């Protein structure tokens, strides 16, 4: 069946238009990780722009039963939506970004990560920036992850030949030109990272919640031999979790990195506030809120105060995570499912590093999601001091983005980490491939 705009807007159930197709999302509302209201705002309307911003293209196919894919708009309706989208007045935030893009410094002047971050703050959409830059609670650990490095000093040795240094290494049987990998970050515009990792000869660990499908990312590899690792957020539904692992194994991802420290979402208030800030910004200027109206429908605000989505964009990524994982139960489950090497990400103390070793994992990632956790560099230091006998394969991620990477890298490698992985590598702008690679 083909749909008119009138028809879409008249229905009682929650129907949305995405890429000229009509979907009934009524039954999916309670499951939507970003909350029902984020969808209801677009009921009867075109939701393409909002959808594209945070969902991989295959998300509808994976999450919505076939019978809820109701059909296409008819030609006239599709044309009207396209025209409305094209003629729409840009939001204040979009106008700000366009100006910043025109004025931004050339890449050759970006000398370090601080320069890069300053530009990112100007050219990123407000919502993406709030998501990327926010950290838990009062952001104490966020700051300390970086400050931890300033408590360590080198004792440089001299009179040693250094004209030929080889920074290459091998991790989980994968060679890497430098001891740096791309730590997973959700919604990161992955394809550019994939190409960048190829050019640089480093490993990319793809998030469970990317902005592209796992296959699109695998297909973006210039050479099928390029190694990708997969970071797993384990769904509480074992069947869904198994499907996810089987999919990436089938796509030739080469290691599974199970994240264990994000089973509940952190309290990232900047991220939570972002939609309100944007709405207020727009209302103050134009009297309207962002979004594309079609079919003449404008929803009246509810009488009742709406409950806020306290998870924000970041919370949505772990909304269905398994909160009852244990070493005894989860590791055998995963090892039975795949023969790929398994790393555990989110180790925050020596005791858990020991348990990970005992559980037979192939490596650990020392990292945290904030909330007063000990800075990762300190955990690494203690691990090396207290249990130098365990683990060859240790990777750290925290805090590396906020100081000069080379200094952090040296400190971390001096403590015999195998590798380190910065996470703030991309900006998720309108296009799915909008990364600004140095
Ligand atoms: C915006 C953002 C998204 C992230 N997404 C994920 C993710 O999808 N999976 C994951 O295991 N870790 C994720 N992380 C955690 C990072 O991989 C990394 O462990 C953490 O940010 C600490 O490193 P940093 O202090 O250098 O940022 C994310 C971090 C940020 C900032």
From TrEMBL:
Cofactor(s) the protein needs: FMN
Gene source species: Athelia psychrophila
Domain Cytochrome b5 heme-binding: start-end pairs: 1-74
UniProt record similarity statement: Belongs to the cytochrome b5 family.
The protein's name: FMN-linked oxidoreductase
Keyword Heme part of the UniProt annotation: yes
UniProt keywords, alphabetically: Heme, Iron, Metal-binding, Oxidoreductase
GO MF, any single term: heme binding
Biological processes annotated in GO: lactate metabolic process
């Amino acid at each position: 069946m083909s749909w008119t705009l009138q028809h879409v807007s008249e229905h009682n159930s929650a129907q949305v238009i995405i890429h000229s197709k009509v979907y009934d999302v009524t039954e999916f509302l309670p499951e939507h990780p970003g909350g029902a209201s984020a969808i209801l705002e677009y009921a009867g309307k075109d939701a393409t722009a909002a959808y594209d911003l945070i969902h991989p293209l295959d998300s509808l196919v994976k999450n919505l039963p076939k019978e809820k894919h109701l059909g296409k708009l008819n030609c006239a309706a599709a044309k009207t939506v396209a025209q409305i989208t094209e003629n729409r007045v840009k939001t204040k935030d979009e106008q700000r970004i366009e100006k910043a893009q025109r004025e931004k410094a050339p890449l050759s002047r970006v000398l370090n990560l601080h320069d890069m971050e300053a530009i990112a703050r100007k050219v990123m959409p407000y919502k993406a920036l709030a998501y990327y830059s926010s950290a838990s609670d009062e952001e104490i650990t966020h700051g300390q992850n970086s400050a931890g490095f300033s408590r360590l000093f080198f004792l440089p040795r001299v009179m040693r030949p250094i004209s030929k240094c080889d920074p290459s290494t091998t991790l989980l049987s994968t060679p890497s030109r430098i001891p740096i990998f791309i730590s997973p970050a959700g919604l990161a515009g992955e394809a550019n990272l994939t190409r960048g990792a190829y050019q640089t000869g480093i490993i990319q660990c793809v998030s469970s919640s990317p902005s592209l499908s796992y296959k699109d990312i695998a297909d973006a590899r210039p050479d099928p031999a390029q190694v990708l690792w997969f970071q797993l957020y384990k769904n509480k539904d074992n069947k869904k979790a198994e499907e996810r692992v089987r999919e990436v194994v089938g796509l030739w991802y080469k290691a599974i990195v199970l994240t264990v420290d994000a089973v509940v979402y952190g309290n990232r208030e900047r991220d939570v506030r972002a939609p309100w800030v944007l709405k207020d910004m727009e209302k103050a200027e134009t009297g309207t809120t962002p979004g594309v109206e079609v079919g003449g429908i404008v929803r009246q605000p509810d009488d009742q105060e709406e409950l806020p989505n306290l998870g924000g964009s970041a919370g949505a990524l772990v909304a269905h995570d398994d909160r009852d994982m244990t070493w005894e139960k989860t590791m055998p489950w995963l090892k039975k499912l795949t023969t790929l090497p398994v790393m555990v990400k989110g180790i925050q103390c020596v005791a858990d590093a020991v348990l990970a070793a005992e559980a037979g994992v192939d490596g650990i990632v020392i990292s945290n999601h904030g909330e007063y956790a000990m800075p990762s560099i300190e955990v690494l230091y203690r691990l090396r001091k207290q249990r130098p006998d365990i683990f060859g394969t240790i990777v750290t991620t925290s805090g590396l983005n906020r100081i000069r990477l080379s200094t952090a890298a040296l400190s971390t490698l001096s403590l015999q980490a195998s590798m380190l992985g910065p996470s703030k590598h991309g900006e998720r702008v309108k296009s799915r491939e909008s990364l600004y690679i140095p």
